[in-house]
Specification:
Length: 318
């Protein structure tokens, strides 16, 4: 004889079966009828009511099996598929609620479960999720806690701080740890947050992305130091972005991009000590390997020549 929870779950499944059968019958009636706008609205109302019964049945079945909440159901399902992409509609199904996406966020933000999504990962379809580990990540939970604080940052007088100020506050608070683009978008509360990061870098803040450090996932940024760059370097950063944009973030020798693991630097075609200037026509984007190849006689790791002019100066005696 099944225990009480199993009986409740079995009854819920039976109720869903009835609702699903009625759902199909409504669709059959709609197919057989000459459906105009008003008639279709009547069919849609019936289908909506039956959909609600199906969701209620899912919840009852979950509770009958000891799954206390939609959030727990989502977590249990993700744990069964650790490391695998999971479609969003699967999570909607196991949760049995319309607000399932909020529960996924709670798993990340409040409990530190490392759930990736197509919003943050370019290698995932936009409507997919992936749990990367079977244990919560305390550091991730802490970064989200700080993100919530930064999101609510106020100016003197009680008004909300600007998006750029919130982003800087957050990056400084978690430095030197990285932030992904979902956290940054959450903190900034504006769609133009990447532009605000660029403005912060142009102000001298040494914000690093996977263009500079290919070990960072695409869309992640970190502030390795709380010291600002000197004014000379700030102007160089603006020019650097112009060259990267012009060259479409691609090494002009091998064609690789940061998405393919390339760390990009700016190179003077004609070296400064031979009369070359910091002008667009004398600057190109190279990956660190191709850059090193061009300076093979120098030895050592190449550096971005706009940001590290002393590197190229060492070539004078070569």
């Amino acid at each position: 004889m099944p225990f009480k929870g199993e009986a409740r779950s079995a009854q819920a499944i039976s109720n869903m079966r009835v609702a699903a059968s009625e759902y199909l019958k409504v669709l059959e009636r709609a197919e057989d009828a000459s459906v105009g706008r008003e008639a279709w609205l009547e069919f849609a109302a019936e289908l909506g009511s039956l959909s609600a019964r199906l969701r209620d049945g899912l919840n009852d079945a979950n509770k009958g099996l000891g799954i206390a909440s939609a959030r727990e159901a989502i977590l249990l399902y993700l744990l069964r598929h650790v490391g695998e992409p999971v479609p969003a509609d699967h999570l909607a199904g196991v949760s049995g609620i319309a607000e399932w996406a909020r529960r996924v966020r709670e798993l990340r933000v409040e409990f530190g479960w490392p759930v990736e999504s197509g919003v943050t990962r370019d290698d995932l379809p936009y409507d997919h999720y992936r749990l990367t580990a079977d244990e919560p990540d305390e550091d991730l939970a802490d970064r989200w806690r700080v993100a919530k604080e930064a999101r609510n940052l106020k100016k003197p007088g009680g008004k909300d701080a600007a998006g750029r100020a919130r982003l800087l506050h957050y990056l400084k608070a978690i430095s030197p740890r990285p932030a992904d683009k979902e956290q940054l978008a959450y903190v900034a509360k504006i769609q133009e947050w990447p532009r605000r990061l660029r403005e912060l870098e142009e102000e001298g803040w040494q914000i690093v992305s996977n263009v500079d450090d290919p070990t960072l996932p695409p869309g992640s940024y970190r502030l390795p130091t709380l010291e600002k760059r000197p004014p000379r370097v700030r102007e160089a950063i603006k020019l650097r972005y112009k060259i990267l944009d012009r060259d479409r973030g691609t090494c002009q020798d091998c064609g690789r991009t940061p998405a393919q693991g390339a760390s990009l630097q700016i190179h003077h075609v004609l070296p400064v000590h031979k009369g070359g200037k910091n002008e667009e026509e004398n600057l190109i984007t190279l990956c660190i390997q191709c850059h090193g190849g061009r300076h093979a006689l120098m030895g050592g790791a190449p550096k971005d020549e706009l940001l590290n002019p002393e590197y190229e100066a060492d070539l004078r005696d070569v």
